[in-house]
Amino acid sequence: MSESSDRGRDGGPWWVQPTVRSPQALLKCVFWPVAVMLVVHRTVIRAVDGARTDDFTGVYRAAVAFWNREPVYTATYEHVDPHYLYPPSGSLLIAPFAVLEHELSRWAFIGVNAAAVLVAVYLVVRMFGYTARSTVFPIAVTVAFASESVINTLVFTNINGVILLGQVAFLTLLLARRDLWAGAAIGVTFAIKPILAPLLLLPVLRRQSKVLLTAALVPVGLTALAWPWAADPWQFVERTVPYLLQSRDYFNSSITGNGTYYGLPEPLILALRIGFAFLAAATMYLLHRYHRHDEVFFVVTGAGVLMTASFLLGSLGQMYYSMLLFPLLMSVVLPQSVMRNWPAWLAVYGFLSADEWYSGRWVEAGRYAEYMRPTWGWSLLLIVVFAVLVDRRRSTRVPEPVTDPSVDIARVGRQNASAPKL
Fold it and tell me: What is this structure's pTM?
């Protein structure tokens, strides 16, 4: 082969030729290899290697015990090790993982959750009108698999990826007004854990009452199937449910969890919870005006507000729950998004970044920053969303009364045409 055959048309090597023809193609050229390698690294290397925190072993033992009709709810809740907290219906759904040997089952669990995250990201992208061939999809995959939420879900081998897929499927079907299927999608997640329960306010506000029917029937039906097979189903009611209602002071970024850890007075913790509950309720009130005219904006923003409030106000808020805010973050592509400001993304850094703030020089300050950053991130996000909506409501212009139709109707028409669509 001659030397000239290794040269491009402009005389340079072929591998540095300007083959990209548009900014969109350039972005895909950059982000696709990064996205693919992040998925492979997080799934095959980080997740398979694991970490000290192991959410899967308890789940696997419970699956084996349920499969063999042995007691499942035998954990000592005074210990800080991860506990098995799924109801009998959740035991039924994870029982197939008991067929495999522990390590193979863990790899399968990792694969299922990684695939669920990818499908969920695709559905979120589709929700905003983009396709898998768009520039947005590889960027969204990159952001997701670079986040603490996805990394630790896979490394700890948690089921949050499946919960995320259930949430996104619910929102997608809700927007499509496939009410029964939307209820079934969220109902499957209820059979595992009820973390998405606040989202049921959305079909109530949108008057899609059929959603509530299947949202209740699916977990009830799965429980009816699991209950006769389980060896100790009442132990879930008598031992596990009371534990779930308590707020622990370790690995808990909710207001109650961090407040208790740092020794805040109970009245102050209660006041903070009431204050943020009022803020969330006021935000949903301000959002409600969009529920007919801008359905996607209302649904994804409302879902983000409800989930963020539940992380802060509930008995348990863990940082990797933040992946359930992906639809809200993706709404930045909408012209009217509440995420188009820098304080919102400062908040996102707090609860989504994989950075660690432990410091060898500033030990106490570093520990405080690490423990508190998801809490202040969620808090700041709620404050920002509320502030944006308040400012938007105050700045909405009301057309002046028409006094001379022959002159003013055209002027008012031009004003309305140039005003932002709500």
Answer: 0.89
